[in-house]
Specification:
mainly alpha
């Protein structure tokens, strides 16, 4: 049986799939946009890629047979972001992480972010991270994904997720620590 929906003939099974999509996937659009925003570092690009990813998710929704819809759609967004980066900014994906430059210090990123008006500095530090580090931090710290969900979204082994997250936190910590040291030196010069 088919019906007319917005001027188109729609099969009842298509209508049911669309309603199921709206119920399971659409509520995660904000998380999808947030992930795209942090990977791509630009609101307009993130909006475009997130919308494209949602359309892709709708197109392939029949292949979704249950499970965690949030992880499924975030994986599509992530893949769409990296496809976009490969086409538009391939040099960003080539940025390597040098672990020797970023050793553990006594201050945590969380304590630095909480201390005063550090939101802008934290945002800049996150934006300075390579996209693959930024994504695991965003998924874990901003979206609250478990290691298992991040592994599913990024198609990485769970150990690699944990390692990447640790290195991303170290690099973020280093960046924030350097920012505080620069502020302190500036303040001393002003005295």
């Amino acid at each position: 049986m088919s019906r007319q929906v917005q001027g188109q003939d729609v099969d009842d099974s298509d209508l049911q799939e669309r309603l199921r999509f709206e119920q399971l996937v659409v509520p995660h659009f904000d998380a999808a946009f947030n992930l795209a925003r942090w990977i791509l570092e630009g609101r307009a690009d993130a909006e475009d890629v997130a919308q494209e990813a949602m359309l892709r998710a709708l197109r392939f929704f029949r292949g979704f047979h249950g499970g965690d819809a949030r992880s499924w759609v975030l994986q599509i967004v992530r893949n769409s972001c990296y496809t976009w980066l490969e086409k538009n900014r391939p040099t960003e994906l080539a940025t390597e992480f040098d672990e020797e430059l970023f050793r553990q210090a006594g201050v945590t990123p969380e304590s630095l972010a909480i201390a005063g008006d550090n939101r802008e500095r934290l945002t800049r530090a996150l934006e300075d991270l390579p996209p693959r580090f930024r994504e695991v931090l965003v998924l874990r710290e901003l979206e609250g994904c478990s290691y298992k969900e991040i592994a599913s979204i990024t198609a990485m082994p769970i150990g690699t997720v944990m390692s990447a997250l640790a290195r991303a936190r170290q690099r973020l910590q280093r960046s924030l620590t350097q920012g505080i040291q620069a502020q302190n030196q500036e303040a001393k010069r002003e005295l």
